[in-house]
Amino acid sequence: MTQAGNEFDEVIRIIGIVISWVINFTLDLICLILLLCSMIMPWRFLSIIMMLCCQSKVFSNFREDYRSQCAMCFFGSIFDMIVIPFVIIGILSITRIPLIINVIVCNDENVYSSSSSTNDELNYDIDKRY
């Protein structure tokens, strides 16, 4: 090969290295933004701290572990934002308030047992419905 061919190969190799670095930097920056977005919810701090402290010490796997952990924290936060309002609504819905009060105030653990009058009202004609 001629000298010009070697120089051209060297330029192409350097361009490939620069493009690879830019892509990796961009992906790492996106993962950092996802991690910061997941820190909006304060109960996620512990999982984020555990993620950063307990990373694998092998540098070749660090970038892949970092990216996957950031994505998991972000999607866990999104899941929390979707599920928690429905859980609160389910707990505090009007139909459950008397049962919750009965359990808390009266310490009645048999709210759903067959001896409870509330259960008879809730399961009226249960055989016909199912």
Summarize the entry for a quick read.
By secondary structure, the chain is mainly α. It contains six helices and no strands.
Jot down its keywords.
130 residues, mainly alpha, 0% strand, rod-shaped
Task: Describe the model.
There is one protein chain. By secondary structure, this protein is mainly α. Helices cover 76% and strands 0% of the residues. It contains six helices and no strands. It is rod-shaped and about 90 Å long. It starts with a helix and ends with a helix.
Terminal residue distance: 84 Å
Instruction: Classify the secondary structure makeup into a structural class.
Output: mainly alpha
CA-based gyration radius: 29 Å
Low-pLDDT parts are none
Main sheet: strands, sense, barrel: none
Order of helices and strands: HHHHHH
Task: Report helical residue fraction.
Answer: over 70%
How many H/I helical runs? 6
Shape type: rod-shaped
